[in-house]
Amino acid sequence: MARPTRVVTSIFILTALFWATAEAKTFTVLTGEWLPYTSESLECGGPMACVVKEAVAVSGHTVLLEFVPWRRNELEVLSGAALATFPWSRTSAFEKNCYASTPLGNHQMAFFYLEKKLPGWNFTTLEELKKHRIGGSRGYAYVEIFEAAGIQADYAQDVEKSFVKLFTDRVDLVVENEIVGWAVLEKNHLELLDQIAVAKTPLFVRPLHVMVSKTHPDGVEFLEVLNRGLALLKQSGRLDVIGGYGVMAPAGKPPVQKNTGEKQQAN
Predict the structure, then answer these.
(1) Are 54 and 16 in contact (CB under 8 A)?
(2) How many CB atoms within 10 Å of residue 76?
(3) pLDDT (tens digit, 9 = 90+) per residue, 151-192?
(4) What SS3 class is residue 224?
(5) Whole-structure pTM over 0.85, yes or no?
(6) C-alpha 123 chain-centroid distance
(7) Is the peptide bond before 36 cis (omega within 30 degrees of 0)?
(8) How far apart are the first and last CA of the chain?
(9) For residue 112, what are the β-bridge partners?
(10) Cβ atoms of 165 and 133 closer than 8 Å
C-alpha cells in the first residue's frame, strides 16, 4: 500500500534535483509578527515561513526573511522597493501592484466580543455592524470592506492594543484572524479567556498569499520559482506536513489553565 506514496516522493525528489541545477539565488522576502503563523521566535520563522522557504528551496534557491512592521511590509512591496511579503489576503492595492502567489492556505476573519456585554451576538450584515464600536488594525483586507460600507472603525497598531480597548470598554468588537486572536489572548490575557466569545459567522474566509512586486526586477522569476515549489510540495504531501496552520479551521477557545500559585516553565 505504500507504493503510491513512494512514487510521488521519488518524483518530488527528482524534480527538485532537476530545478536545483539552476544557478542558486537568495531572495529577500519581508514578513512580520503574526503568531502562530510567522514569528522570529518560532523555528524556521513559523509554519508559513517554512512553507515559503521549502517551496523556493525546491529550485535550489534560498529565502532570507526580514521581519519588519506590517505597514513597512505593505509599503515597500507596493512601491517595488522590496521583492515580496507574506501572508496577505488580496486587496485592490495589492491587485494593482503585485502578483499573488498560489494560496498558502485559508484563514478565517472573526469577531471577538465580551459574552457578558453582547450575549449570543452573531455577525449578520455590514449594516448591522454600524451599531457597534469596532476595533481593528490597518493593513488588513477588512479595512477596504469597512471603508466601502461606510463603517467607522477604531484602528490600533496591533490586535493586542485592540483587545485592551475591548477589556476597557472602548470598543464592542475586535476583528482578527480567529487563530491569531486566540493566540494573543492566551499569551497576554489568559485570566480573561472565559469572558471572550467569537461570533459563529466570520466576516470572511479567504486565501493567504505571498504578494510579489510587479515592478521588482526579480518579481517574475521569484513568483515562478515559488509557485512551482508550492505545487510540488502539495503533490508530494509535504505541504500538509510543514504547513501546520496553513489551512484554517476554527480554533475554538483555548482551555483556561487554573493558577495553582506555582510558576510554570515556558515551553
Answers:
(1) no
(2) 19
(3) 999 999 899 999 999 999 999 999 999 999 999 999 999 999
(4) helix
(5) no
(6) 22
(7) yes
(8) 38
(9) 174, 198
(10) no
